[in-house]
Write a structure and sequence with these properties.
The chain is of the alpha+beta class. The chain has 2 helices and 6 strands, in the order E-H-E-E-E-E-E-H. Strand 1, helix 1 and strand 2 form a beta-alpha-beta unit.
Length: 95
Amino acid sequence: MIEVLSPTTADIDRREKRQNYALLPSLREYVLVDQDRRRVDVYRRDDKGIFNPTRIEGSGTLHLSCLNLDLTLDDIYYVVELPTTISEPEPPAYA
């Protein structure tokens, strides 16, 4: 599951949707793509069924094991014009 965060739904995507997705045993990875920053949060289910978060920023690479696919943040943010300033506060890494 991949979600692109928007300012109006980011809190819902980070909290409520993530909790609901955790109830789906077949879901192995959940990805949140920030639209205002070069940042992706990945939640991967471990062998005990717990989602563990990883944050990728800057020039990092996202590995999606469910697709056996590697994407750089350059790939993800290709032709995306990011704002030069961001007015909202930095969200907690893994609320």
